[in-house]
Write a structure and sequence with these properties.
Layout: H1 3-35, H2 48-51, H3 54-77
Amino acid sequence: MDFAAFQAAAAELDNRIKEAGARLGAVTEGLAAEMGIPARGPMGLTPDRIKFDPRYRIAKAAADIAFSELRAFNGRYAPRFKKSDTRRD
């Protein structure tokens, strides 16, 4: 894989994770409005009532898969294209 292909694949995975995160946020906000509770608790955590809803779990699973794909991709290819350190002491 050359650097241009790496950049294109990384951009595609970034788009997937952003879309999945946006969907998760939309589902969380929608469920919070539907249930009449805040989307985030006092500590910034998602309430359990929302977490146990199947719609949330599906969106969360999609976001987790997108993240794991990006993590695996970066783990495999990022060291190969690491910016070299050109500083001289």
